[in-house]
Design brief:
- The chain has 128 residues and is mostly beta strands.
- It is globular, with a radius of gyration of 15 Å.
- The strands form two sheets. The chain has a six-stranded antiparallel sheet, with no helix packed on it. It has a five-stranded antiparallel sheet with strand order 10-9-8-7-11, with no helix packed on it.
């Protein structure tokens, strides 16, 4: 069974190692777990971690913007009950559904170039 890992975008900052417990969001501050945000009162955007790593061996999360070995820019998105890669740059597809094949082998893995919250310009093809 997969262990769910999250990150959260909250008040302009990306927080890693977040855990959702009921309606509260907790994060590990390396000393102990502190109450981070009540999702109903102080909204935090929670993103699930995929069990794959990019070419630099960083974990890929929902909302990440990737560049593949062909120079295509792709957004990791939850769509129709699964993670997909949505084409941001011009490609011959709109959305890739079987994304695990993109992360096979060390040389062909996409690279994380940002995320849609901290680098929204990448969604329009503008470097952050």
């Amino acid at each position: 069974m997969r262990v769910r890992k999250y990150r959260a975008f909250y008040e302009g900052k990306m927080i890693y190692n977040a855990e959702r417990l009921g309606n509260a969001l907790y994060w590990d501050n390396r000393q102990n777990f502190n109450l981070f945000a009540f999702l109903g009162f102080k909204p935090a955007i929670l993103m699930d971690r995929l069990d794959v790593k990019d070419k630099n061996y960083r974990y890929v999360y929902e909302g990440d913007i990737l560049k593949d070995s062909d120079g295509r820019v792709l957004l990791v998105e939850w769509f129709n009950c699964g993670f997909t890669l949505k084409a941001i740059s011009e490609t011959n597809f709109i959305r890739a559904y079987n994304i695990m094949q993109w992360f096979e082998g060390d040389t062909s893995r996409p690279e994380i170039i940002g995320n849609k919250f901290e680098n929204p310009g990448l969604l329009n093809g503008v470097p952050a």
